[in-house]
Amino acid sequence: MKILNKAKLDHVYHKMHTISERQILQNVNSPFVVKLHAAFQNSKNLYLVLEYLPGGSLFDHLRKREILDEDEARFYISEIILALEDLHNRNIIYRDLKPENILIDANGHIKLTDFGLSKQGVITGTKAYTTCGTAEYLAPEMLSGKGHDKAVDWWSLGCILYQMLIGDLPHTCSTGNKMQLFKEICNKPVNIPENLSKEVQGLLKELLQIDPKQRLRDIDKIKQHEFFASIDWEKIKEKQVTPPHSPGRKEKLSPNSEAVQSELESTNVECSNPGSYTNFAGFTYYKSLSDLSD
What CATH number should be reported for the domain whose range is 2-53+249-291? Predict the structure, then answer.
C-alpha cells in the first residue's frame, strides 16, 4: 500500500500529479507496470493498493551485486523497454526512470512503479516543460528548460544500462554540487569503457547523446539494435524468458532497507488540521473482484 499524506499535497502542482498518477495506474495495462487494485482516502491520507512484488527493487538487487553481466542487463533492459513502449504509446512520459522505481516480482520480472512525475498527453510534436526527476538520471534537454519529450526516458534508460554494467552512473554528484552535475550532463560526453562489448558500447553511445535529436529514440530501431540480436521480443512480452534472478514469494525487503525507511518517513507526517485537506474528487477506485487474482 502506498500512502500519500494530504498535508504534503497541499499545493495545486502536487495534487495534479497525484491525480495523474492514479489515472495512469488505472488505465495502463502492461505486464511490466505495477497493477492498481484500489484507491481510497480519508481526511488525512490517500491510499493506493498495489500488487504485491516481493522481489524488492532493482536498486536493492544492484546494491547486492554491484554490477551485472551483459546477458543479465540485456534481460532487464528489454523488459524496461517494453514498459516504456506501452507508456509512450499512450503519450505518457515516465520521467523518473531509476533503479528504485523498478520493482521485481516473485518470478524475477520487472514492474515500473511511482508515476507521480509522469506527464500524460504528450503527443508527437509537443513538449513538456517541468524540470523533474532524480538529478543523476535527468536528460540534458530537461535541464535546458526549452522543453522535452519522450526522448528523456531513453536517456534515463542509457543511464541505468551504464549503471548495471559499470557500477556507477555516467555523471555523479560526489561533492553535492548539483549545478556542477547539471553542467556536466549538458556539456560533457559520457566516457564509455572499452572493456564492454562493441554492441553495448554502441547502444550506450546512441542512448546517451546530449542532443535529443541525435539520440536513439525510435522504438523499432532500439529493438533492432545489435545489442538485442539474441532477444525474441514476443517471448519477452509474454514472459516466456527465464529471468536471471527469481526471488520467490518469501523474499521481501528488509524493514531496515533504505527504500522502506524512506517510504515510512515520507508518510509519517501528521496534519495540523486534517479537516482542512479537502476530498480528492474521482480518486476512489476498486478493481473488479474477478481481476484481483491477476
Answer: 3.30.200.20
Let me know the angle formed at the C-alpha of 280 by 278 and 282, rounded to the nearest 5 degrees: 150
3-state helix, strand, coil in the chain (%, to 5): 40, 10, 50
Task: Please give the torsion angle defined by the CA atoms of residues 63, 64, 65 and 71, in that order, rounded to the nearest 10 degrees.
Answer: -90
Active site residue 294: no
Helix axes 151-166, 70-89, angle to 10 degrees: 170
Report helix angle 58-65 to 151-166, nearest 10. Answer: 30
Q: Distance of CA 278 to CAs 10, 84, 168, Å?
A: 9, 34, 43
Q: In the 8-state DSSP scheme, what is residue 189?
A: P
Assign domain 58-237 one CATH number from 1.10.510.10, 2.40.30.170, 2.40.50.100, 3.30.1950.10: 1.10.510.10
Question: Would strands 285-286 and 110-112 be described as parallel, antiparallel, or unpaired?
Answer: unpaired
Under DSSP, the state recorded for 66 is S
Q: What's the pTM?
A: 0.86
Question: What are the tens digits of pLDDT across the range 124-168?
Answer: 899 999 999 999 999 999 999 889 999 999 999 999 999 999 999
Q: Measuring CA to CA, how many Å separate 87 from each of 36, 83, 91, 202, 292?
A: 15, 6, 6, 25, 22
The tens digit of pLDDT for each residue in 226-236 reads: 999 999 999 99
Candidate list 96, 105, 149, 153, residue with the active-site label: 96
Where does residue 220 rank: exposed (0-12), middle (13-18), buried (19+ CB within 10 A)? exposed
Closest by CA position to 92, among listed 155, 20, 194: 20
DSSP single-letter state for residue 159: H
